[in-house]
C-alpha cells in the first residue's frame, strides 16, 4: 500500500460504504447530547410533526441507567445505544423501535426490571427490549467458552439458539431489526476488541447476520456488514481492494457521470420523469466476484451501475426499451425481477450493456416503491406512520407476503425434532450465493426455485399433496425423467396418481429446495413412523454388534435421556425414527451412549497401570540413565521401551512438549501437551496421564522419521498447490498425503501430511509457506 496509509484507506472505505449503503457512520461526537441532537434531526427528516416524547424519555432513562459505564473504546456506554437508535432512525422506523434501541441494554446491564420498564414505557417497548436481551444470550457460532464442546456439540447449540432467534422474530420482527442495528454498530467499533474476538464476531456476523439482513431485504445494513466482515476476516485482501478502487476513483467517476448525463437526456427526451444516478458496487461484492470468477479487479467490468427510479411499472419497461435502443445489450445479462421477484421480494430490471468506449456497464430500473423495499426490506413496514388517532403501525398484505419466509422457518421448527436437520435446511435457505430459476405451471403461475431444481421440487412448491402423489412430469409438453434439471422459462405439468404409494427415499438425493426435502422427510416421519422406529432399532443393534459393544448394557434410560437432550428429540422413539429414515447416523447414537457408559464404569488406575511406581522411584533416586536406545525414542517415567504409540490426532515430533496417556490394552499413547483431546479430558481421565519426554538426542535413532501435518489457509487460485509442494521438494521432505477443500467464499483449506525428523523442520516449513502468495495462515493441528 505505497500510495495510501492505513488511516487514509480507512477514511476512503468509510466514505465508500456511506455512498453504497446509504447509512452514514457516526461521527466522533464530543458528547452524548450532541449525538442525541443528531438522532432527533434524523427523526424529524421523515416525520417532522411527530411527538418524540417517548424517545426523549427513553434517552433520559438510558442515560441515567448507563451512567458511569464505559465501552472498551473508553467512551461513555450511552454512545452505543444512541448509535443503535440513529441506525434505526435512518431506517425510518417507528418511535417504539427507536425507544427500544435506546433501552436495549438496560435490562441486561443495569438494575432496572422488566416490570419497571413495562410501567414506564408500555408493553410494546418492554417486549422489544426483552426480546433483544434474550437474543444476547445466544452463541450463534463456535463462540462457546466451554473447551469440552466438540464441533458437533457447537452445531447443536447453534441450531437450538437459531430456533430461539426465529421464535423471537416471529413474536415481533422489530426485535431482529434492533439486533441488526446493534450488531452493525458493534462491527463499526470492532477495532477495540482483541484479535481473537474480532475474528469470532466477524465470522458470526458473516454466517448469520449478513444472510438474515439479505433475507429480510435490508440491503442498507447487509452491505456495510459484509464489508466490515471482509475487513477483519481478510484484511490483506480488503485493504488491497480499497486501494485499487481508490486509485481509479477519478477516472471511474468521470466515466459514470458521462453515462449518467447521456441516459438522463435519452429518458428526458422521451418525456419520462426519472431520477438517475451512478452507484458503485461495495467491496465485498467486488471481492466475491473476483474470487468466484478467478479474476483481478481490472477484469471485473461491472464495478458500478446506473440506477433509474421512475413512478410506475409501465415507465420501467418504457425506459428499458429506450436504453436498449441506445446501447447494445449483452445477451444473457437481462433479468426481470419485476415479473419474477426474488424471495425477499426485491424487484427491479437489470440489464448489462456495452458503453460508448466499449466498456460494459449495468443499469437497474425500478419504481420508487420498489427502491424503498430494496433498501429497507421488511423494515419498510415499520416506518413512522401517522393515523387519524395518532401514530400507529399498520399491517399490509405485502408485509404478510414478505413474512412468508419467516413462517416457513417456524413450520420447519415444528416439523423437525432433529436440530442437525433444521440447521442444514436453514443454512441452505440463508445461502447468499444461490441462484434461482423460474418455471411456469400450465396456468401461467410462476414458481421460484433454487438452481438445479427438478420436477419434484416444482411439485412440492405447489403443495405437499401434489409432491406426495407425483408419478411423473412433462416439461414443455414432453415427458421427462423426475431428475430433469429445470431451466428458466420451462412450463411444467406434474402427473399425479391416487394410487401412488408416496415419495421415494431416492428423491432426497436429487431435490434441491429445502421445502421439498422437508416435505419428503416429513412424509416418511409421519406415514412410516413405526417402520422407521424398527429400522432404527435394527441399524443401532447391527452397528453395536459390529463394534463388539454389548448394546443391552448401554441401552439404559439414563443414557437414552442424554441422547434425547443432546439432539433435541421429544422422546426415544423420535430418536429411533430419525435414525430409521436416515436423519441421524446410528454410529452417533451408539458411540455417544457408549461414551456415557464408560464414564460411569471407569476402572481405577493401579500402580501396574502406570508402569510400576517402585521401579520408577528407585531409578529416579539413583539417577540411573540407561545406556541403550529406546526403540520409540520416548522415556515414560524413567522407564524405557514400554509399549508406546504416537497419537494420530496431534502427531507429536521430537522437540514438542509431550505427555503420555495410559490406554486400556494398547500401552501408552503419546500426545502433544497442547492437543485438544488431552486438554478436554474429564477429571477422572486426567488421572491416566503420565509424564513423558523425548530421549536424549545422542541416544535416539537419527534415521527415524515421524508423521506430521500442517493446515494451510489461503485464497484459492490456479497453481497454488504447485507452489506449496515445491517448498516440500526444496526441503527434501516427503509428502505422504494431501487433502483440500474450498469454501463458497473462495477460501481453501489444504492439509498436508509428511514425514520429518523433528520440530525444527516444521518451523522452517511454516515460515516458507507463509511467504507464498495467497496464503493467509499456516498451523499444526491440535487434535
TrEMBL record:
GO terms for biological process: guanosine tetraphosphate biosynthetic process. The keyword Transferase applies. Residues 77-187 form the HD domain. The keyword Transferase applies. Belongs to the relA/spoT family. One of its GO terms (cellular component) is plasma membrane. Pfam families: ACT_4, HD_4, RelA_AH_RIS, RelA_SpoT, TGS. It catalyses: GTP + ATP = guanosine 3'-diphosphate 5'-triphosphate + AMP. It comes from the Bacteria. One of its GO terms (molecular function) is kinase activity. Residues 431-496 form the TGS domain. Its EC number is 2.7.6.5. It is an enzyme of class 2 (transferase). Pathway: Purine metabolism; ppGpp biosynthesis; ppGpp from GTP: step 1/2. This is GTP diphosphokinase. In eubacteria ppGpp (guanosine 3'-diphosphate 5'-diphosphate) is a mediator of the stringent response that coordinates a variety of cellular activities in response to changes in nutritional abundance.
Amino acid at each position: 500500500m505505497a500510495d495510501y496509509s492505513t488511516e487514509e484507506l480507512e477514511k476512503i472505505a468509510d466514505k465508500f460504504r456511506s455512498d453504497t449503503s446509504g447509512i452514514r457512520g457516526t461521527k466522533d461526537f464530543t458528547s452524548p447530547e450532541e449525538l442525541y441532537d443528531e438522532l432527533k434531526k434524523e427523526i424529524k427528516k421523515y416525520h417532522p410533526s411527530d411527538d418524540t416524547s417517548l424517545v426523549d424519555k427513553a434517552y433520559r432513562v438510558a442515560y441515567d441507567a448507563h451512567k458511569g459505564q464505559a465501552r472498551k473504546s473508553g467512551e461513555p456506554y450511552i454512545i452505543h445505544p444512541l448509535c443503535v437508535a440513529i441506525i434505526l432512525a435512518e431506517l425510518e422506523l417507528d418511535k417504539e423501535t427507536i425507544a427500544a434501541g435506546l433501552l436495549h441494554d438496560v435490562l441486561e446491564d443495569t438494575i432496572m426490571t422488566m416490570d419497571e420498564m413495562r410501567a414506564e414505557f408500555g408493553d410494546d417497548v418492554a417486549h422489544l427490549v426483552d426480546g433483544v436481551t434474550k437474543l444476547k444470550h445466544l452463541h450463534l457460532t463456535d463462540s462457546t467458552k466451554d473447551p469440552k464442546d466438540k464441533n458437533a456439540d457447537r452445531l447443536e447449540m447453534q441450531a437450538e439458539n437459531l430456533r430461539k432467534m426465529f421464535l423471537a422474530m416471529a413474536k415481533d420482527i422489530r426485535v431482529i431489526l434492533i439486533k441488526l442495528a446493534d450488531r452493525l454498530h458493534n462491527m463499526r467499533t470492532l477495532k477495540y476488541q482483541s484479535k481473537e474476538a474480532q475474528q469470532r464476531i466477524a465470522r458470526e456476523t458473516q454466517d448469520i447476520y449478513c444472510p438474515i439482513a439479505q433475507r429480510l431485504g435490508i440491503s442498507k445494513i447487509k452491505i456495510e456488514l459484509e464489508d466490515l466482515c471482509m475487513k477483519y476476516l481478510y484484511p490483506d485482501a480488503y485493504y488491497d481492494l480499497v486501494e485499487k478502487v481508490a486509485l481509479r476513483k477519478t477516472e471511474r467517476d468521470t466515466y459514470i457521470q458521462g453515462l449518467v448525463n447521456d441516459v438522463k437526456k435519452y429518458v428526458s427526451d422521451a418525456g419520462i420523469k426519472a431520477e438517475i444516478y451512478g452507484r458503485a458496487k461495495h467491496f465485498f461484492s467486488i471481492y466475491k466476484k473476483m474470487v468466484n470468477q478467478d479474476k483481478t479487479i481490472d477484469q471485473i467490468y461491472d464495478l458500478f451501475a446506473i440506477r433509474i427510479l421512475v413512478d410506475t411499472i409501465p415507465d420501467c419497461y418504457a425506459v428499458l426499451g429506450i436504453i436498449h435502443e441506445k446501447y447494445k445489450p449483452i445477451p444473457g445479462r437481462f433479468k426481470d425481477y419485476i415479473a419474477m421477484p426474488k424471495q425477499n421480494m426485491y424487484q427491479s430490471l437489470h440489464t448489462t450493456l456495452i458503453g460508448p468506449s466499449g466498456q460494459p456497464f449495468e443499469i437497474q430500473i425500478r419504481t420508487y416503491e420498489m427502491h424503498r423495499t430494496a433498501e429497507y426490506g421488511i423494515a419498510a413496514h415499520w416506518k413512522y406512520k401517522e393515523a387519524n388517532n395518532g401514530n400507529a403501525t399498520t399491517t399490509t398484505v405485502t408485509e404478510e407476503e414478505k413474512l412468508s419466509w419467516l413462517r416457513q422457518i417456524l413450520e420447519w421448527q415444528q416439523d423437525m425434532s432433529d436440530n442437525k436437520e433444521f440447521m442444514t435446511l436453514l443454512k441452505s435457505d440463508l445461502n447468499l450465493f444461490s441462484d434461482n430459476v423460474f418455471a411456469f405451471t400450465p396456468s401461467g403461475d410462476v414458481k421460484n426455485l433454487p438452481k438445479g431444481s427438478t420436477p419434484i421440487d416444482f411439485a412440492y412448491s405447489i403443495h405437499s399433496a401434489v409432491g406426495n402423489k407425483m408419478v411423473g412430469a412433462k416439461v414443455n409438453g414432453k415427458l421427462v425423467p423426475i431428475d430433469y434439471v429445470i431451466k428458466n422459462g420451462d412450463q411444467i405439468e406434474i402427473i399425479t396418481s391416487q394410487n401412488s404409494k408416496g415419495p421415494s427415499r431416492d428423491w432426497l438425493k436429487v431435490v434441491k429446495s429445502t421445502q421439498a426435502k422437508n416435505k419428503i422427510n416429513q412424509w416418511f416421519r409421519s406415514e412410516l413412523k413405526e417402520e422407521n422406529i424398527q429400522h432404527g432399532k435394527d441399524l443401532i443393534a447391527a452397528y453395536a454388534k459390529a463394534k463388539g459393544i454389548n448394546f443391552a448394557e448401554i441401552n439404559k434410560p439414563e443414557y437414552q435421556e442424554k441422547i434425547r437432550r443432546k439432539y433435541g428429540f421429544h422422546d426415544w422413539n423420535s430418536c429411533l425414527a430419525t435414525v430409521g429414515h436416515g436423519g441421524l447416523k446410528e454410529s452417533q447414537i451408539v458411540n455417544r451412549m457408549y461414551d456415557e457408559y464408560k464414564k460411569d464404569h471407569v476402572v481405577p488406575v493401579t500402580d501396574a497401570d502406570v508402569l510400576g511406581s517402585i521401579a520408577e522411584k528407585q531409578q529416579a533416586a539413583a539417577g540411573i540413565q540407561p545406556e541403550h536406545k529406546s526403540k520409540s525414542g520416548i522415556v515414560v517415567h524413567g522407564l524405557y521401551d514400554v509399549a508406546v504409540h504416537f497419537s494420530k490426532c496431534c502427531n507429536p515430533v521430537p522437540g514438542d512438549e509431550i505427555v503420555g496417556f495410559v490406554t486400556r490394552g494398547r500401552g501408552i499413547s503419546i500426545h502433544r501437551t497442547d492437543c485438544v483431546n488431552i486438554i478436554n479430558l474429564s477429571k477422572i481421565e486426567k488421572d491416566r496421564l503420565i509424564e513423558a519426554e523425548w530421549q536424549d538426542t545422542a541416544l535416539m535413532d537419527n534415521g527415524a522419521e515421524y508423521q506430521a501435518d500442517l493446515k494451510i489457509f489461503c485464497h484459492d487460485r490456479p497453481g497454488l498447490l504447485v507452489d506449496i509442494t515445491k517448498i516440500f521438494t526444496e526441503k527434501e521432505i516427503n509428502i505422504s498425503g494431501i487433502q483440500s477443500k474450498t469454501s463458497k467464499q473462495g477460501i481453501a483449506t489444504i492439509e498436508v501430511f509428511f514425514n520429518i525428523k523433528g520440530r525444527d523442520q516444521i518451523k522452517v516449513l511454516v515460515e516458507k509457506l507463509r511467504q507464498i502468495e495467497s496464503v493467509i495462515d499456516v498451523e499444526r493441528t491440535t487434535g
